[in-house]
Fold this protein.
Amino acid sequence: QVQLVESGGGLVQAGGSLRLSCAASESIFSIPVMAWYRQAPGKQRERVARITSNGKSTYADSVKGRFTISRDNAKNTVYLQMNSLKPDDTAVYYCYCWRGTDYWGQGTQVTVSS
């Protein structure tokens, strides 16, 4: 069982920045995939960014150039740096990893005011 705990969400004005953190309960060194998803009210959960164990990252078109996913294996933590935030980025953000099965964090709220 891998436990994931997100932090760093909050209220920010449009154009601002936030950095989300996802702390894992065990080493992430060998976890093949870690990712950030988000779910806005009334919408389906969508993948925002994904990073593999060798550091390859991919992004949703809506966040390319604004968000950056990274992982610090020594700290067992994955980050999501979010810049130039827009009201449309408002959602609950979830950390995810796959290691034989899916694991999810409890989510952290990000609210971007216009």
Notes: The radius of gyration is 13 Å. The longest strand covers residues 91-98. Residues 52 and 75 are 16 Å apart (CA to CA).
